[in-house]
Amino acid sequence: MAAAKLAVAPSSPTKRLRACMPPVAATSTTHVTLRLSSNLQHKPAATTVAVPTAALAPADGRSDVLAAACSWQEVHGADDWRGLVEPLHPLLRAELVRYGELVAACYRAFDLDPRSKRYLNCKHGKKQILRAVGMADAGYEVTRYIYAAPDVTLPMGICRPCSKSRWIGYVAVASDKEARRLGRRDILVSFRGTVTCSEWLANFMSTLAPARFDPADPRPNVRVESGFLSLYTSDNEAGKFTTGSCRNQLLSEISRLIADHKHEDISITLAGHSMGSSLALLLGYDLAELGMNRGLHGGAIIPITVFSFGGPRVGNLEFKNRCDELGVKVLRVANANDPVTKMPGILFNEAARVLGGRYEMPWSKACYAHVGVEVALDFFKAGDVACVHDLEVYINQLLNFPKDAVATASPAKRGEDEMMSGMLKSVFESWRWQIAVIRTGEWLRTLGI
């Protein structure tokens, strides 16, 4: 596999958002594939509200064509993104970049200085965060910070337990001006990915556990990864900035915002990178299972959309089917070379449930399954393995897939890149098999073998 040379120039979020406004419909250089889940049953009808294209559509007279072709409901998955993914529709690409930047704001604002009083928390106040990270014109007002702490214990004293609440993201709502532009009041929740040691440990707690979000109907067969569930539901009464679980913080704030804007058209958009994608999906399922998106006094259903960047699998097939049934729309942007998108469930996944297309295997209930529709990218940079999971690179790839960079490389350079590509591929394959052996041992213990 030839290595694509990434042309990632440093730029401000605002410049990159403008750069994603395409002059024409999606071009052939955008490498995407469409993979629809096999049980997409819920298809809420899109209303006639068109996407305002003043800021997203090109200024060359084509905005009326784009507006007629796509409503905001379609861009947010009302018809499961049919016809919008391949080729990637310019309005959908603009939305992906926009929400990707709002997730990247979490990383830019995260304090990694051990000497700081806000170490492993946000460096800025709610009113300053978007301006401080260069996104003053994003059109959102941050209303609450979200903190999470997994209930985990590190084995064999590798390092001391680290289960204090850490800043994981924020809740924001579209300003009046932005709501007029978007055609609805958008409630946004943005999650960062894994940083702390306890979060890393939670990522590897691959045992499936019942979600049981609705006390009236616990649905024990709907199971999710226990580490993500712990991060989402664990309480921490001694938090420095807040108390209560990540889940309770989120449900309380979203409920408040829905009530505040009950007479408006509302959308709920959940966006995250890596582990943050898992939290976004758990929240989307939770809101829908509890019926919090049904509006007050029997009002219209509020659409829930998850934009996932480099996200892992979260639950089993029953979880995926239930998300589809509830109408939770999920669009996953995934790099084919990103190992995180293959986990958990390297061995026990969608492909391992049925033998020969007919016989259900005994471990089928323990198999993981991805949810939703995938926008598949394919990139890596020789000498920089970490780039395959980097959110900034994901965003730049959405802006411009670097196909021309490979075509213009010299023969000698292409040969060098191909050799490095083969070496990296071998490393990844070896690493995947090691993880697979670990997972196999876990499942054998689970099955009592």
What does this structure look like?
The chain is of the alpha/beta class and 449 residues long. It has a single domain (13-443), classed as 3-Layer(aba) Sandwich (Rossmann fold). Helices cover 35% and strands 15% of the residues. It contains 14 helices and 14 strands. It has an 8-stranded mixed sheet with strand order 1-14-10-8-7-4-3-2, sandwiched between helices. Helix 10 links the parallel strand 7 and strand 8 (304-309). Helix 4 packs antiparallel against helix 12 and helix 8 crosses helix 10. Residues 1-10, 21-69, 402-414, 419-439 and 441-449 have low confidence and may be disordered.
Descriptors:
449 residues, alpha/beta, Rossmann fold, eight-stranded mixed sheet, 14 helices, disordered N terminus
Based on Cα principal axes, name the global outline.
globular
Mean pLDDT over all positions: 76
The largest sheet has its strands arranged as 1-14-10-8-7-4-3-2
* Percentage of residues in helical conformation: 25-40%
| Helix and strand run | HEHHHHEEHEHEEHHEHEEHEEEEEHHH
Report Rg.
Answer: 21 Å
* CATH level 3 topology: Rossmann fold
**Percent in strands:** 5-15%
CATH class: Alpha Beta
How many structural units, i.e. domains? 1
First-last Cα distance: 39 Å
The CATH homologous superfamily is named Alpha/Beta hydrolase fold, catalytic domain
Low-confidence stretches: 1-10, 21-69, 402-414, 419-439, 441-449
Which structural class best describes the helix and strand composition? alpha/beta
Total helical segments: 14
Q: Give the CATH architecture.
A: 3-Layer(aba) Sandwich
Largest sheet: 8 strands, mixed
Q: Using DSSP, what is the number of strands?
A: 14
